[in-house]
Amino acid sequence: MFTLSSPHNHTPYCDGLSTAEEMVQSAIRHGFVSMGFSSHAKQDFELMYAMDEAGEAQYIAEIKALQARYQDRIRIWLGMERDRHAIADRALFEYVLGSAHYLFFPDGLELPVDGPVSMIIPAIKKHFGGDPYRYAQAYYVQLGEYIRDYKPDIIGHFDLLMKNNREGELFDPEDPRYWKAATDAMDAAFEGCELLEINTGGMARAGALVPYPERKLLDYWRQLGGQVILAADCHRAEQIAFGYEYAARMVRDAGFKKAAILGRQDTLFEWIDIV
Known about the structure:
alpha/beta, five-stranded parallel sheet, two-stranded antiparallel ribbon, globular
């Protein structure tokens, strides 16, 4: 039996669809021993998907209140999911999940790599001469540098751009150019953070068949000496443990003997055996 925990859960203060308390109650029903909230950090772009100034203060107050209310039933942690250009103060939170949803261009344009294909394909034509491997490389360079330099506690959905490439719509993930871009980014990221989430959110919300990252990249991460933590990236309370059995098998089959969970006491992470 895999010990249940998740550091990646959203609330209506960003793009979550269930209240924080509904998330907590669902986690308890599913037997979670701990959980963390990671609403999208305050930023000055794509405001509809992130906390604003007032929302951030309300979010922090609510999670702290839930920590006290449910302290005898589940350990709750106050975190944020932070993009590269977010402006939130790290000191306000107990942990940070670092991720990259956007590809930034010198003219200030930001492209959401998990946005619709109808947006991605014209951007590849305009900014990368129609070469999807240049697009993938640009994404991974920014991601690897960000994780290396910012040093978050957890790396979020490493290969998020695969959301739009489940059937090779944009590029061949077996192509050496893609593999080099992704593994170079992992090399850089490993210098800043050694804990990678196995994210089942795409399975719950976008019909993905496997978690992020895909298995070949997970194998490479293990060879680097990296560690893993299961994460739901949950936006609806009923999906709090979606895909966990599959993800746990994938981690075990990749050769990991242990995985992290959020701690049940005052230490941020615990290490559990994978069985």
